[in-house]
Amino acid sequence: MIEGFLNPGLAIGATLAAVPLVIHLLNRQRHRPQRWAAMRFVLAAHRKTRRRVQLENLLLLLLRMLAVAALAFAVARPFAAGDSPLAGLQEERRDLVLVIDGSASTGYRAEVESVFDRIQERAAALLEGLDEGRGDRVRVILAGARPRVFPWTDPKDARSILQSIEEPLDEALDLALALGEVANLAEESARRGVGGGAEIRLLSDLQESSFLALAVADEAAAGGARPALAEQLSRIDALDLQVLVEDLGPRDLTPPNLSVESILVLGEGPRAGSPFEVAVGVSNHGERELLAERVALQVGGERLPSLRVDVPARGTAEAVFTLTLDEPGYHDIVVSLEGDRLKVDDRRARVVLAPPPLEVLVVNGAPADRVEEDEAGYLLAVLEPPTDELDVDGVSGSPFRVRTISPTELEDADSPIEEADLIVLANVPALPRGAITRLEEQVAAGSGLLISVGDRIGDLAGWSENLFQEDGTGLLPGEPVRRVSAADRTRYYRVNEFDDQHPALTFFGDERWRPLLTETPFYDFVAFTPSPTARVLATFDDTARSPFLMERAYGDGKVVLWTSSVDRAWNRVPDSPGTFVPLVLELVQDLGSRFQQERNLSVGSGIELVVESFPRAASLISPSGAQRPIEGDSTERPDRRWSLPMLDGSWMESVGVYSVRAEGARAEPVAVQFDAREGDLKRATALEVEAIHPALRVATISNDDGAAAPAAAPKRGELWRWLALATLLFLVAESLWGAWIGSRRRYDS
Questions:
Q1: What HEC string does 192-253 produce?
Q2: What confidence tier does 159 reach under pLDDT thresholds 50, 70, 90?
Q3: Taking Cα atoms as reference points, which of 531, 417, 533, 541 lies closest to residue 464?
Q4: Burial bucket for residue 103 (CB in 10 Å: 0-12, 13-18, 19+)
Q5: Where are the domains of the chain?
Q6: Do 93-253+682-712 and 358-592 show the same overall fold?
Q7: Between these two residues, 14 and 516, which has the higher pLDDT value?
Q8: CB 660, CB 644: distance < 8 Å
Q9: CA distances from residue 659 to 336, 431, 600, 609 in whole angstroms, order as listed
Q10: What's the CA gap between 382 and 384, in Å, rounded?
């Protein structure tokens, strides 16, 4: 009979039907019979009409109780199953869950209109078949990388929602997330005892990467995509529901499309004033080879000469550009193709950083006139290029800007320590507490510190008094124990083991270059006991496996200890350019490189932008040119840079180059990149989609206009309108019956 209620709690109101009976019984208890002489005449008359009066009162009471009960049940809104005896009385209200594929691939224009236009038209046609007068409801879900779920509404408001969605999103379709929202809605309705007849429609272009790619990856569980999709579909199937998929994509199973797939920086990366190469990957997703396709590139809005590439069918080609950036900082690179039927993937942007030269401050503890005798002579020869390479078009071509001072200058107020990205202490004897404090503050703020030892160190205990602390607060990553020296020059120590995954040592991880580090003689070094927070990067082959290189974090910076000298007095490393040059360069680069922010984001990602100076009156400029003020307070970082307030994903939902502009500062670019997989428009067939899960069913095309066949009638229907009508009839009957009884009794009296 009745299967359930939309508002089961309100069905309790049916107990109010007993109120008229209770009132009747209470009133009877208040009347006490009193005998008086004339009563015998009344009793005689009453006996003649008692049975008729009782029946009349009983019927009146019954009508009142039925009216209350019918009203309570109508408000509770009961529904019945399709095979119920009450099926003929069901209210044919429809609940439609409309999932709109809003992924970027639906922007493809097969002819005049795009696939998304067809999806919009089909969605509007489905709404035309609904009747808000009978209570039909619609839930619109716009599916992309994340689903946008709109509340339940009537067909009229649903049409307004569709009209507000003018263009597809710049995102790929995450089908598992979209159907997960559908499953959540269905389960919530089931818990409330409502929605069993909900109709689920997915309007899509059946892009293979959104459907079949998940099926193929099932056993490998690539990224967990297929299990997640299967789980959501199983949740829907468990509620005896199906997802009716309508194919509104182009006719071709493999629509032709050319897209910019990648922008990669080749080599070591850009340096201001120095040329570097950028490789642009172009993908042909069609079945026909494309010849002499033009690839254009611009940097910071300045267009470079274009290149032409031949792209094989279902293959890729590469165009390599040579660029030169005029100044340090972040720069945007935009690549574009000649427009085709899907415009969103014909452009791609990337932000690259040309870092400013590292400010290296060398504190030389044993200077000398000759390079061979100077403690930092070989180090400076590596860091300082020849004079004719210092300047290219007015911009320094060297990655380093080196200054040398003596240990006594380190404590001076005008010493350049606060400008240094990296500080090198080369055989520096014991320092006063004031100089140590300045070093600690600078390293904690983000600078690097490279410490090497030598003859000037002298007493190890006195040298490390202010540099090492047992509680780990000192700069040294270990406690000095003793100096270790080989018996003579015919005997020496070598590097035995090293961490070839560390950025400074990866060069020597190649078996060809490994001997350059492991076969170089060391005659003297200082044995250290590493701190618990230190990381040993390389060890000697002595019995104690003493450290050669140790590293530890200190605040926002890092400290590396070189336990031998950096000149040729204690080892032969400077005599081997193949060892000394890459080791020094990689150590300096790793230690001196400060915070570098990744500014290439996916659609909908957020970012807390870090800039060099205080961003006064900052605003975000979108690719379309729209300007949006950035509200909130910026915060100063320990490295003296500034962090803007968090810009969440809603700020960056379109692909292209965004820029943050502030008064008195250069624009700071951010690139939002297109998901390259979305450019492959290859489509799945109906059989392939239905094979994914039983809960997926592709709609058949049966009408002449190409519209999908209407869905089956709802499995459940409501009865509230009939109950409301019954309530009205009971009230009318009660009123008429009560009036008739009153007039009859007045006549009888």
A1: CCCCCCCEEEEEECCEHHHCHHHHHCCCCCHHHHHHHHHHHHHHHHHCCCCEEEEECCCCCC
A2: very high
A3: 531
A4: buried
A5: 2-88+720-748, 93-253+682-712, 358-592
A6: yes
A7: 516
A8: yes
A9: 19, 46, 12, 11
A10: 6
CA-CA distance, 571 to 553, in Å (whole number)?
A: 27
Length of the chain: 749
The highest-level CATH class for domain 358-592 is: alpha beta
| pLDDT tens-place string over residues 383-413 | 986 654 444 444 445 788 999 999 988 888 7
Of 617, 625, 613, 607, the C-alpha closest to 662 is 617
Residue located via tokens 């050319």: 258
Write down the pLDDT at residue 483.
Answer: 94
User: For residue 522, what is the DSSP state?
Assistant: B
93-253+682-712, which class in CATH?
Answer: alpha beta
- Residue 9 scores a pLDDT above 90: no
pLDDT for res 42? 61
Q: Coil, helix or strand for 168?
A: coil
**pTM (2 decimals)?**
0.74
Question: What residues have CB less than 8 Å from 577, skipping those under 6 apart?
Answer: none
Rounded to an integer, what is the distance from CA 140 to the centroid of its chain?
23
For 488-514, how does the pLDDT look when each residue is reduced to its tens digit (9 = 90+)? 888 899 999 999 999 999 999 999 999
What is the 3 state secondary structure string of 315-380? EEEEEEEEEECCCCEEEEEEEEECCCCCCCCCEEEEEEEECCCEEEEEEECCCCCCCCCCCCHHHH
Tokens of 586: 């990689």
Integer CA distances (angstroms), 514 to 499, 520, 542, 586, in order: 12, 10, 19, 15
Q: Are 83 and 91 in contact (CB under 8 A)?
A: no
Which amino acid appears at position 70 of this protein?
A
Backbone angles phi, psi at 460, to 5 degrees: -65, -40
Longest CA pairwise span in the chain (Å): 147
Q: How far is Cα 108 from Cα 167, in angstroms, rounded to an integer?
A: 11
Among candidates 118, 93, 27, 50, which has minimal Cα distance to 705? 118
Residue 201 to residue 236: CA distance in whole angstroms = 13
Q: How far apart are CA 200 and CA 542, in angstroms?
A: 73
Cα 39 vs. chain centroid, distance in angstroms?
A: 91
Q: Residue written as tokens 């001196």?
A: 592
For 165, other C-beta atoms within 10 Å of its C-beta total: 18
Helix (H) or strand (E) holding 620: strand 619-621
Helices of type H across 594-684: none
Q: How far is CA 22 from CA 651, 733, 742, in A?
A: 64, 21, 22
Alpha-carbon distances, residue 154 vs 93, 138, 264, 708 (angstroms):
11, 6, 49, 22
Task: Give the model confidence (pLDDT) of 450-463 as tens digits.
Answer: 999 999 998 898 89
Lowest mean pLDDT, pick from 6-20, 497-511, 547-561: 6-20
Spatial distance between the Cα atoms of 118 and 216, rounded to a whole number of angstroms: 29
What is the strand order of the sheet 199-204 is part of? 148-149, 137-143, 95-101, 199-204, 243-247, 696-698
How would residue 711 be classed by pLDDT, with cut points 50, 70 and 90? very low
